[in-house]
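Backbone-to-sequence.
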């Protein structure tokens, strides 16, 4: 475990680590084979459909579990994927799901970005992150976020939003 600063500096440090984890894991044979198998039969030029398939697969296999109150834990995506493939389901928090989704998207040539949001006021801290996936030719992004509240984030007052390209 590494100490991270608080506030926006801590969010930036966490996102940088998530980005590194996703990029490194996207090159692993298990990740590429699994993501490739999921989109088998879909044109490599249809990134929206590929992203939706990955989103649906992840959302069916992840339930939310918060990190301990005293720590920000980041799980290595290849280990998370291995757990899904052996147990069928995993418990993750939003940053682990975002990292896994970015990893799988990158592995099959999709673009990925992290979206971070804060609630209630323009100075509120960032509290949630998810991944959006798209192909290189499209402007349309597909959100992957199974940890989102049942009512969805649209019903909450998002006051800050940031994007980090993976």
């Amino acid at each position: 475990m590494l100490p991270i600063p608080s506030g926006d500096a801590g969010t930036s440090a966490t996102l940088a680590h998530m980005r590194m984890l996703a990029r490194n894991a996207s090159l692993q044979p298990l990740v590429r084979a699994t993501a490739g198998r999921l989109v088998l039969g879909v044109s490599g030029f249809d990134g929206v459909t590929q992203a939706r398939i990955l989103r649906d697969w992840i959302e069916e296999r992840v339930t939310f579990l918060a990190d301990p109150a005293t720590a920000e834990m980041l799980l290595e995506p290849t280990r998370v994927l291995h757990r899904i493939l052996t147990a069928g389901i995993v418990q993750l928090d939003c940053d682990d799901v975002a990292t896994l989704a970015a990893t799988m998207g990158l592995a099959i040539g999709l673009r990925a970005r992290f979206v971070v949001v804060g609630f209630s006021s323009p100075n509120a801290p960032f509290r949630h992150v998810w991944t959006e996936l798209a192909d290189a030719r499209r402007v349309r992004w597909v959100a992957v976020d199974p940890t989102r509240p049942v009512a969805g984030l649209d019903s909450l007052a998002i006051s800050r939003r940031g994007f980090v390209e993976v």
